[in-house]
Design goal:
With 122 residues, the protein is mainly alpha-helical. The chain is 70% helix and 0% strand. The protein has helices at 2-24, 39-48, 57-79, 85-113. The radius of gyration is 17 Å and the shape is globular.
């Protein structure tokens, strides 16, 4: 049990550090670009009508890095249940898609409650 938790934490920390180095600390990602949104941004804009001009984008990047690191680490630990590379790859897709949808739905609802939605014209 301790081995599983330790593996989870190591993978989580490594993913977060790499995400921090390559995405958050990158000067190009300091502001939201409406012409070239990231996949996560486009999903939240489409489904939850999040207005990224109202969102503190640096905090949002930290939140998505935590979520993405959590998804990767959890998926890695859940996949190790099965033996065989083929079944592990298959199982990873089974876990990966619902995890992404659930976590980004939580983020979308969080920003909706904060009032960071686009103004709807009637």
């Amino acid at each position: 049990m301790i081995k599983i938790i330790l593996e989870f934490l190591i993978v989580f920390i490594i993913c977060y550090i790499l995400y921090f180095i390559f995405v958050i600390s990158n000067k190009k990602n300091s502001k939201y670009k409406a012409k070239k949104p990231r996949v996560e941004d486009a999903f939240l804009t489409f489904k939850y009508k999040i207005d990224f001009k109202k969102v503190n984008y640096k905090k949002y990047l930290h939140l998505t890095s935590l979520v993405n690191s959590f998804i990767i680490a959890l998926c890695l630990e859940l996949v190790q249940i099965v033996n065989g590379l083929f079944f592990q790859i298959l199982l990873s897709f089974v876990f990966l898609v619902p995890l992404i949808l659930i976590t980004y739905s939580i983020i979308g609802k969080y920003y909706q409650k904060k009032g960071m939605i686009k103004d709807v014209q009637l």
